[in-house]
Each structure stands twice: as structure tokens, then as C-alpha cells.
Automatic annotation (TrEMBL):
InterPro entries: NAD(P)-bd_dom_sf, Sc_DH/Rdtase_CS, SDR_fam. Belongs to the short-chain dehydrogenases/reductases (SDR) family. GO terms for molecular function: oxidoreductase activity. Keywords: Oxidoreductase. It comes from the Bacteria. This is NAD(P)-dependent dehydrogenase, short-chain alcohol dehydrogenase family. It holds the Pfam family adh_short_C2.
Length: 270
């Protein structure tokens, strides 16, 4: 049994910062070869800056310094299925295949109520989170076939498991990824490929700490119970999520598939 991801080829979308960067560095430290995708273009409805090519270059250097394996990074928007397929084919060609794909890229936006979202806001969020999870999986799976232990990890959210006011597009997209993850678990089981989801509560990254979040929280006040963690913590750290991502993608979890592992400090319990 392989006890770590040493020597594996791991793809992480949204890897230029935040949780994705944390995952990428941890895989590198574990001995994996790591492929970073990020630096989307043309996202106009996100109330904070997404990562750019400079961020991706800085992330590449950090991941490279974290471990002995190869690091490849690509400017690729997960909404561009052709580009994602092209870069994963290139990475797989250079590194010999793909063992793990982590669909982590995501954006967050809001409106006072979900019916007041602009169509553009709905579409950018859904295209990045739901369609973008599928574009990564579709591009990775052909390069995973025949590789022992290969698996997909989708990054969900507490929003994948309950309704949350002012963010119906994000909630719907994350719920959709649950269905995608489970369906792929069924389809890929005969190939020995697993498919799972890690669902974090609010984490200490730009997505949750940017100034616009205060307005979102204001819209949510009094419109849903239990909008807090059960455990006494406000924001969890990326590393808390990374530990779960690494475990579920390793052979330690070799018979775990179609599963959601919540790293949510009890947010969804009540
Ligand atoms: N931060 C939280 O509170 C929280 C909570 C639950 C779930 N999540 C989820 O965790 C994941 C990681 O988010 P984070 O907290 O690290 O936020 P983040 O904003 O720091 O990082 C997200 C990364 O995804 C990239 N990205 C966004 N759209 C993209 C696209 N179309 N193509 C390629 N890359 C794209 C961004 O450039 C950025 O580098 C997301 O799926 C998010 O929905 C976050």
C-alpha cells in the first residue's frame, strides 16, 4: 500500500493562493509532482481580486521550494474547457500521467437576495464552481485511467449542504458539485478511481477576509439559524482543510469514495 503521495502527480486548480496553495505545498512536501492552475481572466462580478499571473509565479516558487518533485504551473481559467484539457495533456505528457486532481478553484459573490443577483453574477459563479469542477475532472480522468490509487477531490463548502441567504448561486453551484462528485464515483469505481469532496467552513483566505464580506454577512443576519461554527473558532486555517484533502486523496482512504468529509467545525450539525 502506498502510504503517501510520494512520486504521484497531483493537479490543483485555484492554486495561486489560499487553500489551493496550501494543498499544493503540502503535496510537494509529501514528495508529489504538482501542477498548478490559476490566473483566470475576465471575472467581472467578484467583489475582490482573484489571483493573477504574478501570484501564480510566486506560488510556483513556493511550491518548488516545498519539496523535491517537479512543479508545473499554467495560467488557465477553469471555465475554458479547451484550455484546461490542453494544459493537463501537456502536464500529463511531461510527468507521465495524473494521479490526483483537486477541483479547488472558486469565487464568491452575493446580492441582498438571490433573485436580485445579476445573470452575469450567477453565471460566473456557476461556471467557475460547477462547470469548472467538471472541466477539470473531464480533462484529468483520461490521464488517470490505469493508475493505482488515482482519485478526484472536489472542494465543496458548508454551502454544499444547506441554504444560505444572499448566495443562492454559490449554494446551488456547490450543491451541484456534490451530484457531480457522486456520479463520477459511480462511473469511475470499475476503474478503481475514487471521487470525494472536502467541505470547509469559512477559512482564513481572501475569499472570506476581503472587506466586501461584511456586507454579505449583513444580508444574512436573521435569515437562517446556526450561521456559526459549533466549535469555538471563527475562521479555520487553510492547513486544516489541506490535512483532510491529503488524507482523502491518499491510499489511507483507499476505500472511501462518493463521500463528503466536512471540515466545518460543526457548522452544519445544527
Ligand atoms: N474561504 C472560505 O471561507 C471558503 C469556505 C468554504 C469553501 N471554500 C472554497 O474553497 C476553495 C478555495 O477558496 P479559497 O478560500 O482558497 O479562496 P481564494 O480566493 O483565496 O482562492 C481561490 C483561487 O481560485 C482561483 N480561481 C477563481 N476562479 C478561477 C477560475 N475561473 N479559473 C481558475 N482559477 C480560478 C483564484 O484566482 C484564487 O487563486 C473554493 O472552491 C471556495 O469556494 C472557501
Amino acid at each position: 500500500m502506498v502510504l503517501s503521495t510520494d512520486g504521484w502527480v497531483v493537479v490543483v486548480s485555484g492554486a495561486a493562493r489560499g487553500q489551493g496553495l496550501s494543498h499544493a505545498k503540502a503535496y510537494a512536501a509529501d514528495g508529489a509532482h504538482v501542477v498548478l492552475l490559476d490566473a483566470p481572466s475576465g471575472l467581472a462580478t467578484v467583489p475582490y481580486p482573484v489571483a493573477d499571473e504574478d501570484d501564480l509565479a510566486a506560488a510556483h516558487a513556493e511550491v518548488d521550494a516545498a519539496g523535491p518533485g517537479a512543479v508545473l504551473s499554467y495560467a488557465a481559467d477553469v471555465r475554458d474547457a479547451g484550455r484546461v484539457a490542453e494544459v493537463l495533456a501537456d502536464a500529463a505528457g511531461r510527468l507521465g500521467g495524473i494521479d490526483v486532481a483537486v477541483a479547488n478553484a472558486g469565487i464568491f459573490s452575493f446580492a441582498p437576495s438571490t433573485w436580485e443577483l445579476s445573470p452575469e453574477t450567477w453565471k460566473e459563479c456557476s461556471d467557475t464552481i460547477l462547470y469548472g469542477s467538471w472541466t477539470l475532472a473531464r480533462a484529468a480522468i483520461p490521464h488517470m485511467l490505469g493508475r493505482a490509487g488515482a482519485n478526484l477531490v472536489f472542494v465543496g463548502s458548508v454551502s454544499a449542504h444547506k441554504g444560505i441567504a444572499a448566495t443562492g448561486h454559490y449554494v446551488a453551484a456547490k450543491h451541484g458539485v456534490v451530484g457531480l462528485m457522486k456520479t463520477l464515483a459511480i462511473e469511475l469505481a470499475p476503474e478503481g478511481i475514487r471521487s470525494n469532496m472536502i467541505s470547509p467552513t469559512a477559512a482564513n483566505t481572501t475569499m472570506a477576509t476581503n472587506p466586501a464580506m461584511a456586507e454579505c454577512v449583513h444580508y444574512q443576519e436573521g435569515r437562517g439559524s446556526n450561521m456559526s461554527n459549533l466549535l469555538p473558532v471563527g475562521l479555520i486555517e487553510p492547513r486544516d482543510v489541506t490535512d483532510a484533502v491529503l488524507w482523502i486523496s491518499s491510499d489511507h482512504a483507499r476505500y472511501v469514495t462518493g463521500e463528503v468529509l466536512k471540515v466545518d467545525a460543526g457548522f452544519t450539525v445544527r
